[in-house]
Here is the input.
Amino acid sequence: MSTDSNVPGRWVEENHDDQYRFGFRVTKELFSGQSDFQKVEVVETAGHGKMLLNDGLVMVSERDEFVYHDMMAHVPLFTHPDPKRVLVIGGGDGGTAREVLRHPYVEHCRMVEIDDMVVESCRQHIPLTSSVFDHPKLQLDIADGVKFLAETDEKYDVILIDSTDPIGPAAPLFGTDFYKNVYRALTDEGIVVAQAENGFYEQEAQVALVKIVSELFPICRLYNYSNLTYPGGLWSFLLSSKKFHPVKDFVPDRVTSSGLDFKYYNEDIHRASFAQPSFIRKAVAPYLKDGAQ
Ligand code: SAM
Here is the structure.
């Protein structure tokens, strides 16, 4: 952490490969602890509300969490015609599960987060996302998502891998064995969405994930969103589907007639988010079975 002499208080800074640094001014320290997996901090910031950081990397801020959680949850849930059972791996702040459970037809959402310290610090300091922890349809487990998927015989319509970057306990969440277990845990019409890094600073990791997952699923598509608090701003999710295409099979009326109101997501954003800049499209095209679009 560094302190900018021009402004009172400290700044939390995210250093990216020692080539790029960005920061947020802290106005109040809310929590800091070292779990078995990572350093966990929650701070109040001058311009982005409360913020969760794991090992110094921004996970969630009150100011822009709606973007990430809208796009992780609503794109697959409006692609699948009748999602009832949803599994979230990671997602310790609660924002993804919160958006999932806004869909009245979802009957059960199971959330498997490895780090209890993330859950408890968010429960105490970031009610905006953690209020979902008391939802009657939510089952919250503190466990390793890799082990859970390897051992479960439950079936899900949608699985959301809301993980940290491919380091530490999250590294296996980007591997072939894990996705073979995801495939097995999905129903015949199942859809999985994963946090898929970004084409600017992590294109190698992004392409590696597409390469692995497209070997297992007939339909595999990156889709983008813009995040204020992640390096470079343009970030992606990877949607992989056993049956339904996220654009060709998408029915916009399902969104407009859902009665749900969103801050970021809508039926136009749903379709537009799958349009890729050429440098990303060219990088992943060789691995997509049915061409780049
Ligand atoms: N939106 C954030 C992002 O894009 O980086 C991620 C949200 S959430 C805070 C990520 C969570 O994944 C963390 O709380 C971390 O503890 C959890 N996680 C990492 N590896 C995991 C694993 N193997 N099983 C379950 N949860 C895991």
